[in-house]
Amino acid sequence: MTPQPLVKDGAKWRVGSGFSIGEIKSLGLNVYQARLLGIYVDKRRKSTWPQNVENLKKWLADVLEGRAPLPLPTLPKVVKVKPKSGRAFRGVTTAGRKSRGLLSTSYRETHNYKYRKKERERKLRKRHEATRGISNILKFST
After folding, report:
1. What does the pLDDT look like over 43-77, one tens digit per residue?
2. Which tens digit of pLDDT belongs to each residue from 11-36?
């Protein structure tokens, strides 16, 4: 198990969320190597406490001698986020809602209303896209 860093919180010591970069560098490691070893790194901390450096040295010696198991790496998770398309294509603006068939609905950014409406028109065989205008109605009625 990795050692827990101590952080001074006013007059008390508490368990921190990770070791500072200065504490990691005093061991001769960089941040990437420390995370590969399973050491949590707090990039926001600036302080370097000697007791944290000693705990890390003892733990690293135990790991190298095989007395302590090597934990899983603590590399940050990479999450890919698809960028949003333009406002009109999401149906955010009035023109976008009109072009996507969302203007008369309360859903605004969802397309469920439009899909249900088209499905209903298909079942009734209304030819929903073709019957816009009087000339198309006359064309199909004969």
Report:
1. 888 989 999 999 999 999 998 898 988 888 888 88
2. 888 888 889 999 999 999 999 999 99
**How would you label 103-124 residue by residue, b for 16+ Cβ within 10 Å and e otherwise?**
eebeeeeeeeeeeeeeeeeeee
Q: Please identify which residue in the block is written with the tokens 């065989």.
A: 125
Q: Is residue 54 located within the same domain as residue 93?
A: no
C-alpha–C-alpha distance, residues 18 and 140, integer Å: 73
59 with 92, same domain: the answer is no
Containing structural domain, residue 104: 87-141
Check whether residue 58 and residue 93 sit in a common domain.
no
**Tokens read off for 43:** 């990039």
93/133 same-domain check: yes
